[in-house]
Each structure stands twice: as structure tokens, then as C-alpha cells.
Design brief:
The protein has 561 residues and is α/β, with parallel strands linked by helices. The protein has helices spanning 50-53, 81-89, 92-95, 142-154, 195-198, 221-229, 233-247, 253-268, 283-303, 353-356, 361-372, 401-410, 450-468, 470-474, and strands at 44-48, 100-103, 107-109, 114-115, 120-121, 129-135, 158-163, 183-184, 208-209, 272-275, 315-318, 330-332, 337-339, 347-350, 380-384, 414-418, 476-481, 485-493, 496-504, 509-514, 530-534, 539-544, 547-552, 557-560.
């Protein structure tokens, strides 16, 4: 895969198909004020569906004659890579304290659609790969992707690429089957044993790659023909020869795809992979993917020393559907348990958070503190309240948006904001079927409504506080007072300590907060009164005898020094 000079996204001031073009959100957030190291285990990650977030380039909205009428919200709507870049340039993610962006896959998708029983559908979601070596023009170009990564890195944001190893899209006249050496047409997964979870199709006609195969295979004829028609066959074959010679890997279906996926790290400096449908692939495959990803990341850093933003290693987390963090590292597949953390993964998505978030703050925070510093010590989890395929989110009717922010962004672990969580995007779209209701267009218009602005401001303040303080996601939790509820988080790194104190459900107006000895080390020899900041109200406060008094209209304080 080759790329050329990147182009900046053009801001268009009119509405077109799908995602509306809106001016940037009003400047209603406090800006980040702290310089702290980036810690993956404490990241504030934003997850978006590329096609549904923002349409910055309407010229790429229709490709491959994808013009057949689809069911509600099951076709392409215009969102693209340039749209993500534009929102970084406008400061949208920075205002939310986002320091990692995960977006749905952007590789070339099925040209045709399929009727899944929920109505006609195209691969707008990005999970029906046709060619892992090229991007789908509906999402953008290689130059667009390079510009996105570079812009993100310039703004202190890491890029997470969503990758699929185990299946291709639905076969059709436009999208040929990859052949029996590469893939299977059935049976469908039974989800009761290791065998019927890994060697099966997720759904009918979604061809399952034979990732377990040790047989060396040739490229399928349709891919060779495609590359030749695009004038890049010789270059692709040359790169494949170099990869297999250097890696010593066999030319199996799994290893071809691993080469193609890690190319995006080698060429663009992708910081992390989110691995789709992790439990549907033999765990040994993930060890190989991780090893090659690590090599690719080091190659990128060596070739682009001026683009390296820190010394963090490559990061990889997986979607093991229904993994519950409280159950420990082993995941039960029925007749076999697998520790995916021991097979290339730093982190797994935690499907338990939405249930635990029904509890009070201390029960929630203390539980996750014990998980992260206990059974999962040295690893981490991604917590979410909403996602693209979870039909039972924490707050489906968006009546608890403030509470969602407070619980998600202050819970130990990585926080995953799903696009529109911060703006109460509607999750109950009339006429939709299945997960389509979770995948509506980002509600940019709503950012100017007073109620939405208040919700967004709350997410922004908490998000920035989290980004400024790795203690929130990775530190040790300690309750200071039950009523009023006050806790501290402490994180040590190198010779420094990050310490914060948070108060929740406090009375509005004047209040005194007990912080104990949390900030004792910050007291200077020249003053008896220590000055600290409430990041939520922006007030500078005097701390004396382990207490601080504040007069604010808020029921929350975020104390830092």
C-alpha cells in the first residue's frame, strides 16, 4: 500500500446526504491546564462510527453503484475520515479531554449489499472487508488516513484502528467468495464450545476466514484481478514477498491478513488495534498479530523519528463478547477457558460496566479499583455505557446523561465515550431494526440547545479532568468521606505523584470539603495555606488543616494542585 502527500479537509458550509455540515460547537469548555504523561490504562477514548460522525467530503458519498434503497439507517450516510480530522482541527475532541480515537473499520467493503432479514444493508459499518489493502472510497483515501493520524498526533491524540481478522463480507456477484482454501461458508456459530465458536460463520453467508489453517495458499483470483486492474499487482506481490521472507511466517490466510493489517502501522503510525470478534479466532493467532504489530510500530518509529510523540508501546485490546471484568482473566467458551490477556492483549472491553453502573458511586469505584489492582494488575479494561451493537445500553432513553458521564469518566479503567453520549444523541430511532437504532447520525445541531450544552459541558469538564490526571483511570482509589461523598485517587510514575480529590452529590452553594492529607506534599515551606484548584468551577481555593471551603452552584468538585 502506497500513499502520497496528504490533503487537509475542506470545511463545507451546507447540508448534503447524511451527516449534516454544521459549524463547530460553541466554546463552552475549560481548556486543559495540566501536563501529564499519557497512560493507556487511564485513557479517555472516543469511539465513533466513521460513516455516521461527520461528512467533510460529500464528493465521496456514493461509490460502486451503492444506490439501492436500504432499510432505515442501513446505508451509507456520508461520514468520512476527513470528518474526523476536521473535528480534531476544530478542537472538538480536545474539549472533551479525548486522548485516543477509535473509529470503525475503513478498509474497502463489499460493493453489494445484503438483505439480512432486517432489510437491505450496505457495509457502512466497516465490518464486511472486501480488500484489506485498500480503503473504501466512501470513507476516504490513504492520504486522508495519513492526514488524520498526523493531525491527531500533533494534538496529543492516539489513533485506534478497528481490525477484523476472522471474516470477509457476504459473497455476491460483485463480491466473490474467497475460495475453500481461504474461507468456510458454514456452519453458523453455536457459541457453546470452543470449536463451534472459532470454526464457524457469525451469521449466514458471512464467510469465515480459516485462521486455524496451516496450509500455504495462493491469493484468490478475484483479488489478483482487482489489483491488476488497479495497477498495483506487482507492488503488492513485492511487499508480500518481503514480509514473508523477513517474518518467516507461512503464507496462510491468517498471515496474509496480518501483513495487510500491520501495514497501516508501518506506514501511518497507528497507535493501537481494537480487535473485533476476538473469541471467534484461535488465541494463538492473536500472539502472531501482536508480535507483527509491535515490529511494525518500531519500524514506523525508526523511519519517522520526528513523528514519535512518546515512548509508549503499541497497544491492543479485544472485543471478547460478554467478557465480564469481575470474573477474572479466564473467559469460558463452554468446554475451554482462554486467557486472552496472555495471548497478545493489553486490554479487553468490559461488558459488565453497564450493570455495575446501576450501583452507587463508592460501590462502583471501589469494585473497579479492586479489579484493576487485583486480578487484572498489569492489564486493563475498556468501560463503556453505550456501543454500536449493545441493544441494552446503560441509558437508552438518555434520561441520565449527566450521571453516565460522572460514572463512566470517573471509574478506574479506560473510559470509552460512544459518539453522541456527550450530546444525548437519540438511541430510539423510529423505523429502525436491531442495532441500526444505535447508529444514527451525530446530532451536531443539538450542541446549540441549552439542555444539550449543559450536558456537553459536564462531559467536557470531567473528560479534561480525566485526561489531565492519570490517577483517575489508573490510580489507587480511597474513600475519604461517605457523606458527603469524597474520594481521592493517587498514581505514582517515575519520581512524580498525581493526586486528585473528588466530591460528588454535594450541596450546592457554600460547602466545606475534607481532603485529609491528600495534598500534604504540595504544601510549600513559605506558606501555611495551600492553594489548590477546583477544575469543575475553575476556582482557586485555600486549603488549610486538611479542609477547603468553596461556594459554587455545583454539586461536584474536582480538586487538583
Amino acid at each position: 500500500m502506497k500513499n502520497t502527500t496528504a490533503l487537509f479537509a475542506i470545511l463545507l458550509a451546507f447540508s448534503l446526504i447524511g451527516c449534516k455540515q454544521e459549524p463547530s460547537a460553541p466554546d463552552i469548555a475549560l481548556k486543559q491546564t495540566q501536563e501529564q504523561p499519557f497512560i493507556w490504562e487511564a485513557a479517555n477514548m472516543y469511539f465513533l462510527m466513521t460513516d455516521r460522525f461527520y461528512n467533510a467530503d460529500p464528493s465521496n458519498d456514493v461509490n460502486f453503484d451503492r444506490t439501492k434503497e436500504t432499510a432505515v439507517l442501513r446505508g451509507f450516510k456520508g461520514g468520512d475520515i476527513k470528518g474526523i480530522t476536521q473535528k480534531i482541527e476544530e478542537g472538538y475532541f480536545q474539549d472533551l479531554g479525548v486522548n485516543a480515537i477509535w473509529f470503525t473499520p475503513v478498509v474497502e467493503q463489499n460493493h453489494a449489499g445484503v438483505d439480512e432479514g432486517t432489510g437491505y444493508t450496505y457495509g457502512f459499518h466497516g465490518y464486511w472487508a472486501k480488500d484489506w489493502t485498500s480503503l473504501d472510497p466512501n470513507f476516504g483515501t490513504m492520504e486522508d488516513l495519513k492526514e488524520l493520524v498526523d493531525t491527531a498526533h500533533d494534538n496529543g491524540i492516539r489513533i485506534v484502528m478497528d481490525v477484523v481478522l476472522n471474516h470477509t463480507g457476504h459473497p455476491s456477484e460483485k463480491d466473490p467468495f474467497w475460495g475453500e482454501d481461504w474461507a468456510r461458508k458454514g456452519p453458523n456459530c453455536g457459541f457453546t464450545t470452543y470449536e463451534n465458536t472459532t470454526k464457524c460463520n457469525l451469521v449466514t453467508n458471512l464467510s469465515d476466514i480459516k485462521t486455524e489453517s496451516s496450509k500455504e495458499v495462493a491469493l484468490p483470483p478475484h483479488l489478483i484481478e482487482k489489483w491488476k486492474s488497479e495497477g498495483r499487482y506487482e507492488q503488492e506481490m513485492k511487499e508480500l514477498d518481503a514480509f514473508f521472507n523477513e517474518s518467516g511466517l507461512a503464507r496462510t490466510p491468517r498471515n496474509y491478513i496480518i501483513k495487510w493489517l500491520t501495514d497501516y502501522i508501518r506506514e501511518f503510525g497507528i497507535d493501537a488495534f481494537r480487535v473485533d470478534t476476538t473469541k471467534h479466532v484461535e488465541e494463538d493467532a492473536w500472539v502472531v498479530l501482536r508480535a507483527q504489530a509491535d515490529k511494525a510500530f518500531q519500524t514506523y518509529k525508526a523511519n519517522h523519528p520526528d513523528a514519535v510523540i512518546d515512548d509508549n508501546d503499541f497497544f491492543m485490546f479485544g472485543e471478547v463478547y460478554n467478557f465480564m471484568a469481575g470474573q477474572g482473566r479466564q473467559f469460558d467458551l463452554g468446554d475451554k477457558k482462554v486467557d486472552y490477556f496472555d495471548h497478545g492483549f493489553d486490554n479487553l472491553i468490559n461488558f459488565q460496566f453497564k450493570y455495575d453502573a446501576q450501583n452507587d458511586y463508592e460501590t462502583l469505584f471501589a469494585r473497579y479499583d479492586s479489579i484493576i489492582h487485583g486480578p487484572l494488575k498489569g492489564k486493563s479494561i475498556v468501560n463503556y455505557a453505550t456501543s454500536h451493537d449493545d441493544g441494552n445500553p446503560f441509558d437508552k432513553d438518555r434520561s441520565r446523561s449527566m450521571e453516565t458521564a460522572t460514572k463512566l469518566l470517573l471509574t478506574p479503567g479506560i473510559s470509552q465515550i460512544y459518539y453522541g453520549d456527550e450530546s444525548a444523541r437519540d438511541l430510539t430511532i423510529e423505523g429502525t431494526s436491531g442495532d441500526a437504532t444505535l447508529r444514527s447520525l451525530m446530532n451536531w445541531d443539538a450542541l446549540y440547545h441549552p439542555e444539550t450544552k449543559a450536558v456537553l459541558t459536564h462531559w467536557q469538564k470531567l473528560g479534561q479532568f480525566r485526561a489531565n490526571h492519570p490517577a483517575i483511570g489508573a490510580g489507587e482509589h480511597q474513600m475519604i468521606s461517605k457523606a458527603p461523598y469524597i474520594f481521592s485517587r493517587r498514581f505514582s510514575y517515575e519520581e512524580d505523584v498525581d493526586m486528585v480529590v473528588v466530591g460528588l452529590d454535594l450541596p450546592k452553594g457554600k460547602k466545606t470539603i475534607e481532603v485529609g492529607s491528600a495534598f500534604a506534599k504540595a504544601v510549600t515551606a513559605n506558606t501555611q495555606d495551600q492553594m489548590i484548584t477546583d477544575a469543575y468551577s475553575g476556582q482557586r481555593l485555600a486549603l488549610k488543616d486538611g479542609k477547603v471551603t468553596i461556594d459554587s452552584p455545583f454539586s461536584i468538585v474536582l480538586l487538583e494542585y
